[in-house]
Each structure stands twice: as structure tokens, then as C-alpha cells.
TrEMBL record:
Gene Ontology biological process: proteolysis
Official protein name in the record: NlpC P60
MF GO annotations: cysteine-type peptidase activity
Residues annotated as domain NlpC/P60: 277-396
Signal peptide: 1-28
Length: 396
């Protein structure tokens, strides 16, 4: 009788080992592998996000350069038109120095011909210069349009990558929840296994059939507990995973927005509390000090060895405990929009449309600002009248 009980107990313990090995252990292993795979996907996607942001920043730099060139050409064209108009008015007047007097005051017929040729050449040259400038303006405008389209496409790519990151974050949480449940089930199974092994030993040591049967019942109960736990856990995990997956598919965009907004809100709150106490005159002084250091424009730079536009604003405000992201559009999220005419020293000035800015500077008052213009130039003071920003922003 006792021998049969021991045999039964061995079978019970063997069953329990099978449950633990093929159930919780395999599941936990699979889930751990899935978590590692999601982590790798997150890492790969983050690299793509960083590359996309770099491409976007470079395109926005080109947007700024094209805008500056267009503004310069427009100014030159207007000046050339004004000069031609002045020439036309001069030709209609009959006073000293007028073109008519220049032509009629010739000493001979050949001299008159030479003077006519001179005037014609001058007018032709002016007209040709004007036409060349118009052609250049059209060429730069066409280039800017192409860059604008590339910026729009890159923004869509960045948005998709952000959504992918949000989805992966949800998947990772789901898997961690699943792994936690499997780990808990595994712990229970291992505890039950220990109980069953102890029961087997108790059967062997039992001095009566009653004690042996009691020990066998304990081992059987341990197997039943683990089996039930695994079944319920598997069902629960499956349902949770399915529901979470559906929720993820239905709200991938909103998940991305929530993740991004949460990050922005947290940082903005910290920034707001610190920026409110920043002495704007100190900000202006710090910005002006950079213009005396011959700091070159370096795309992606944020140090005294080189900086770009958003790197400059981030560098200056970091001195006062305000952490700004190294991107013009992202920096918009840290300000309250206002018109350029309402800007106060220390405010940020932006070029481009709201939510799609491509250049930023620090306003220092009297219609002037400090910025890192573009490649080949150094940090310097600019004028609102020379190159006007689109809008201003005051740190929250």
C-alpha cells in the first residue's frame, strides 16, 4: 500500500515539474524574449527619430538661408527699380546733369553717337541687372518651395515615428504586465513544487496509510493550484493583451500625443517655475556677450566652439536654470505667443509659421536681437527692420 502511494506521489510530482517547466518557465522565457525584441525596436526607432530630427533641423536651416537671400534680393530689386525710375525722371528734365543735356551737349556727330551708345549701354546694363536679380529671386523662391515641401514631408515622417514609439511603449508595458503575472505564477509553481517534494518525502516517511494519504493529498492539491493559476493567468493575459492591442490600434495617434504632451507638460512646468524668476536683463547681457566671442555658426552646435540658432537660445537660458530643447519648433512649446511689436527683452523671436518655425533668436530690445545666422557667419546682433521675425514668444 505504501509503495503504491509513493508511486502515485512520484507521478504527482512529475506532473508538477512538467507544469512548471512547460508552462510558466516557457511562457516567461517567451515573454522576456518579446520584451527584448520590443526594446530593440524602440532603440532602432529612436535612432530613426534622431536622424529625422537632424534632417528636419538641416532643412529648416536651409529655409532660413533661402528666406534671407530672398529678402536681400527683394531689397536689391526694389533699389534697382528706384534707380531706374530716377533715371527716367532725369531724362524728362532739362537741367544740368540730365540725360537730355548730356546727349545734346555733344561736340560733334560722332560724339553724339558715342554718348547715345553710352546711355543705351547704361540703361541696358541696369535693366539686365534687374532681370538677373529677378531670375535669381525666382530661382531661390523655387528652391525654398522645394525645401518647404521637404520640411512638410519630413515632419510627417517624424510624426509617424513618434506614433510608432508610442505604440512600442504600449507594447512594452503590456509585455511587462504579462511578464509580472508569469513571474508570480512561476513563484507559486515553484513553491507548490517544493510542497509536493516535501509531501513525497512525507509519504516515504509515513508510518501509516492515513499519513501517507494525507501527504499525497497535499501534493495533489499543489498540482491543482498551479494548474488553475496557469490557466487563469493565461486567459487573463490573453484577454488583457487583446484588449490592450485593440485600444492601441484605436488610439495610436492619441497615445503619441499624450506621451509627447506629458513630456512637454512636465518639462514646461519645471521651466515655468524657474523662468519666472529669470532676470531678463541678465539674459540680454549673456546673449550680447556671445556676440563678442567670434562664435561660428555650427549646425547642431550648442557651445562656445560653435552653435546654431536654437543651440544659442538653449545655451543662454541654460545659464539661468531654464532647459530648452534644441529645436525651434520644440522651443515654441515653451512660450506664450505674442506679436513682434509686443516683444520684450529676453523674449524669443521666431521666423516661419507657428508650429513650423525654422529660425529663432533672443530679443534684446530697441528692435534688435542676438542670433546665430547661418553657415559662414558668427553669432551677432540683427535688426527687426533688416530681417523681420514672424512672431515672438515669452517663456511661460
Amino acid at each position: 500500500m505504501k509503495h503504491n502511494l509513493i508511486s502515485k506521489t512520484v507521478l504527482v510530482v512529475a506532473s508538477l515539474v512538467t507544469v512548471v517547466s512547460l508552462g510558466t518557465h516557457v511562457s516567461a522565457s517567451d515573454t522576456a524574449t518579446q520584451i527584448n525584441e520590443v526594446n530593440q525596436k524602440i532603440s532602432d526607432t529612436q535612432k530613426l527619430v534622431n536622424e529625422s530630427q537632424k534632417k528636419l533641423s538641416k532643412l529648416q536651416d536651409q529655409q532660413y538661408s533661402d528666406s534671407v537671400e530672398i529678402a536681400s534680393l527683394t531689397k536689391n530689386i526694389n533699389a534697382r527699380k528706384s534707380h531706374l525710375a530716377e533715371q527716367a525722371r532725369s531724362a524728362q528734365q532739362n537741367d544740368t546733369g540730365s540725360l537730355i543735356e548730356f546727349l545734346t551737349d555733344s561736340k560733334s556727330f560722332s560724339d553724339a553717337i558715342d554718348r547715345v551708345a553710352t546711355v543705351a549701354t547704361m540703361i541696358h546694363a541696369n535693366n539686365q541687372t534687374l532681370q538677373d536679380q529677378k531670375n535669381d529671386q525666382e530661382k531661390v523662391a523655387a528652391d525654398k518651395k522645394q525645401v518647404d515641401e521637404s520640411v512638410a514631408a519630413q515632419k510627417k515622417t517624424s510624426e509617424k515615428l513618434r506614433n510608432d514609439m508610442a505604440d512600442l511603449a504600449v507594447q512594452k508595458i503590456q509585455l511587462k504586465v504579462k511578464k509580472a503575472k508569469e513571474d508570480a505564477a512561476k513563484e507559486k509553481a515553484e513553491a507548490a513544487l517544493a510542497a509536493a517534494q516535501k509531501a513525497a518525502a512525507a509519504v516515504k516517511a509515513a508510518k501509516s496509510s492515513a499519513d501517507a494519504n494525507k501527504a499525497l493529498a497535499t501534493a495533489t492539491k499543489a498540482v491543482a493550484t498551479v494548474t488553475t493559476t496557469n490557466t487563469n493567468s493565461g486567459t487573463t493575459t490573453s484577454n488583457t493583451s487583446t484588449n490592450s492591442s485593440n485600444n492601441s490600434n484605436n488610439s495610436s495617434t492619441s497615445s503619441s500625443a499624450t506621451v509627447t504632451q506629458t513630456a512637454y507638460s512636465t518639462t514646461s512646468t519645471a521651466t515655468a517655475s524657474s523662468s519666472s524668476s529669470v532676470d531678463t536683463s541678465s539674459v540680454v547681457a549673456a546673449a550680447l556677450s556671445l556676440t563678442k566671442m567670434n562664435i561660428p555658426y555650427v549646425w547642431g552646435g550648442e557651445s562656445l566652439s560653435g552653435m546654431d540658432c536654437s543651440g544659442l537660445t538653449a545655451y543662454v537660458y541654460a545659464k539661468f536654470g531654464v532647459s530648452l530643447p534644441h529645436n525651434t519648433v520644440a522651443q515654441e512649446g515653451y512660450v506664450t505667443y505674442e506679436s513682434v511689436s509686443q516683444a520684450q527683452p529676453g523674449d524669443l523671436l521666431f521666423w516661419g509659421s507657428k508650429g513650423a518655425s525654422y529660425h529663432v533668436a533672443i530679443y534684446i530690445g530697441n528692435g534688435q536681437y542676438v542670433h546665430a545666422p547661418r553657415t559662414g557667419e558668427t553669432v551677432r546682433v540683427g535688426s527687426v527692420s533688416g530681417y523681420a521675425p514672424s512672431f515672438a514668444g515669452r517663456l511661460k
